[in-house]
Amino acid sequence: MKLEAGRFKKQLLVLIGAGLLASSCGLQSIPQAKNEVAATIAEVTNQYKRRADLIPNLVATVQGYAGHEKDTLTAVIEARAKASSITIDPANMSAEKLADFQKAQGNLSQALGRLMVVSENYPQLKADRNFSELQAQLEGTENRITVSRNRHIEAIKSFNNLVTVPMTSWTNSLFYHHQPLPQWNVDAAEEKVIQAAPKVDFGTKK
Q: Which range of residues forms the domain containing residue 46?
């Protein structure tokens, strides 16, 4: 009996060891994937901050030619303040916090879109060199936001696969206990805002 118990114990240890060996890549890949999520969300927020930093000069320029468009200008200023006040922490991210962040940024996009539509009514404003440069910078920033957001989506997907799909999920259960992160879904979180926003081609030259 003792011999059989000893054999069973050895076999059990071998199976456990084999399982850990098979999933040992998770020991490095899981924290690496988490670091990638943190890096990509930092890039997304940096690009949104870059956009926010352009807005005061944009508003000031438009105000110089269309100062009576107070409602539109105020909407941009207030949307910028709201968007700048909401931050997301990759170490403590929830679906609710992510949705709040996306909604605030979407509202700012909508307000900017309306401002650009208003600018079409002011030929002198459109001809202003500073305004044209700001348009070009906004266009570039919007493109960078899209690129960085797509990278972040892929980083979350990779992380979530590691912590939920065997065999790396076993390593996660044994050592890390990470939960899947909420995915950035523009269609779900910002669909109404994007559909409501006027479609504007920033910086288009005719």
A: 42-148+186-196
The predicted-structure confidence for 17-50, as pLDDT tens digits, reads as follows 555 555 456 788 999 999 999 999 999 999 999 9
The total number of structural domains in the chain stands at 1
Q: Is residue 66 part of a domain?
A: yes
Residue 119 · residue 144 · CB < 8 Å: no
Q: Which two tokens stand for residue 12?
A: 């059990």
Output the CA angle 35-38-41, nearest 5 degrees. 145
Please state, in angstroms and rounded to a whole number, the distance separating the CA atoms of residues 27 and 14: 19
Which amino acid does the sequence have at 86?
A: I
What is the Cα–Cα distance from 179 to 181, expressed in whole angstroms? 6
pTM recorded for the entire structure: 0.78
Radius of gyration of the chain (CA): 25
| Cβ atoms 162, 168 nearer than 8 A | yes
